[in-house]
Amino acid sequence: MLQKEETILKTYFGYDSFRPGQQETIAHILQLNNTLAVMPTGGGKSLCYQIPGLSRSGTAIIISPLISLMKDQVDALQSLGIPATYINSSLTSATQQKRLNGIRTNQYKFVYVAPERFESSYFVQILKEIDIALVAFDEAHCISQWGHDFRPSYRSIVDKLATIPNIPVFAALTATATKEVIQDIQRLLHIQPESVINTGFERENLSFHIIKGRDRTTYIRSFIDEHPEESGIIYTATRKQTDALYESLSKHGIKVGKYHAGLSEEERKQAQTAFLHDEITIMIATNAFGMGIDKSNVRYVIHYAMPMNIESYYQEAGRAGRDGEPSDCILLFSPQDIRLQKFLIEQSLMDDQAKQNEYRKLQAMINYCHTHSCLNTFILDYFHDASTETCGRCSNCQKRQEKTDITEEAQMILSCVKRMGERFGVSMTAKVLKGSKDKKIQNFNLQSLSTYGIMSRYTEKELAERIQFLIAESILATEEGRYPTLKLNRHSVDVLKGKRSVEMFTAPIPMASEADYPEDLFIALRSLRKTLAAEQNVPPYILFSDATLKELSRYFPTTKEEMLQIKGVGEKKFDQYGEVFLAVIQEWQADHPDVKPKIRIMDTPAPKPKKKEDDRPSHTVSYQLFQNGKSIKDIAFIRDITTQTVENHLFKAYKEGRPIAWNIFFTEEVEELILTEREKLTEPTLKELKKALSDDYDYTTIKAVLVKNKYM
Ligand code: ADP
């Protein structure tokens, strides 16, 4: 079945087999049944109408509400040697006329148009005169008034289309259809229930993570450190957050772009192009960015703050990993996000009923941030998509999450809040705990409190982070208001009385996927792709996806036949780019004669690279990071454990025979002094020694001296 179409799949697109739902959709279209395909982003919807379009005679007309996507799709088809064009308002009228003439004379296999085009009777007249292969509605949910992105101009063309008698079949495609939307599309386009192909929403290559109680900017910096060179989008809730994060990351030498509605059109366009062309790998943006962004090699999407509902979250996060490679979707949650979203709903011009609806959706989003069950399942349940198994990839499924007991620290924080009269906010409390010399502290005479400086070994940021965590866990309450003050609640009292312990989740930064191919070859191929793409002024991923470059690096083909076996390399692509890529592979191979390619078993997809499992003992991980030059504070941050735990890890590693640079803990004089003091004691325990020494020597220093001299 579909032999001809399978050949097209192989020769044009370079793929061996269809993805779920593709074959069925294509078969229905070819039988001239109006068809609706509901597939997740990255599921391969384009091929569902492109293959019948190639297989049938005549021109396929694709209606797309996204101007930016049209050019991308046309570039991609042209790079496969397929005649295609688009018409929208961005073109001069002379160019439009030229292309219209081209359509009239059957020069194109694919024509992408915006819905508005059907307002032109001239255009409609041309369509009536030509041989049409099919008409496809991309982003078909926009046609429905129940869709979250309803466009009236889209719906109104249905009547116009009814006046064109020579349209043989309609295909509708979407990633975001609820039951109502599906029914609405079916009704409008006369689609029978058996011609609705719905593969569900699951994105198996995405790992979802919720991170709470962390300083967001520091977390993002650490994440970028762990994922250098990878392309990612960071969504913020407001323009102000975009600007601030952009400043902060740029100051740290990280090359980033930014995009929000407050920038000029030119600035936005420049940033978007630089991102699409891999000139900048990271984009910080509000939700104004992304509609129509088809960049397939986005490896992560971080939400700097909680978005307003699961629909937007899944759509934005879903921009990661369109190429099917493993990708991360991270949401940095803080309780203040809830207040911001409520404020945005309150400020909006919606009527009361619509507001209630938004509050309901917001509550589901909040629940997502707090659930302890599988995040993937939670989302699929929300969309009423049957999900039976937990994903095993999300931060809740990964049992690698460790817990650290921070009861003692929590008690210090809570008692400080109490002593401050429950009249101050997070930052003042952090300052008091730190023992800050800030003038404001003196103004309120807070330096005389017994809790002043009791947590001086932490930075104010770390303290603020701990306080935020206690708020997130409802162990501390906040009074609403412009400057929310901290209040104790009954949970705080339980902690203070020692009736309840406090554990902080450890959410390690998701590691980059383990490469099962030589990374330097991948980098060389990527750089060649970038050069070629720049010459042709198209985004690099249009030439070959990251997935294809990884396959090339895994199997390093040396002949045309071998290269045609690679996923994403068809005859047409090979004719255009094959030889140059082969040359780079051959050159690399000559330099690495000992490296053997993986054996490719035909028709078996390459195994998905697994996330690195860190099964080393915890103290070894800390020690390794320390030896790599990370400070104790950095390690504590990266691993989300206390600095004290890191110190204990290092001491343990030393006891196992690994070297430690002791001078970071004490000088020779201090060591001698502590040892002398120890000699004087009859019962030289750590506690007694601390008592005997002046306050200048903290527990860590004393402990370090004792460990080094094997007294502990
Ligand atoms: P969607 O429009 O559903 O978001 P696309 O049509 O952009 O997805 O396809 C996503 C990616 O998957 C593209 O890089 C495409 O080339 C690739 N793809 C599509 N079909 C297949 C297939 N059968 N085998 C392998 N890759 C495919």
Structural commentary:
There is one protein chain. This protein is an alpha/beta fold. It has 5 domains: 3-198, P-loop containing nucleotide triphosphate hydrolases (Rossmann fold), CATH 3.40.50.300; 206-371, P-loop containing nucleotide triphosphate hydrolases (Rossmann fold); 403-505, Orthogonal Bundle (Arc Repressor Mutant, subunit A); 519-602, Orthogonal Bundle (DNA polymerase, domain 1); 618-708, no CATH class. The strands form 4 sheets. The protein has a 7-stranded parallel sheet, sandwiched between helices. A 6-stranded parallel sheet has the order 8-13-12-9-11-10, sandwiched between helices. β12 (298-303), α12 and β13 (327-333) form a beta-alpha-beta unit. The radius of gyration is 30 Å and the shape is globular. The N and C termini lie far apart (74 Å). Residues 15, 18-19, 22, 39, 41-47, 296, 322-323, 545, 567 line the site of adenosine-5'-diphosphate (ADP).
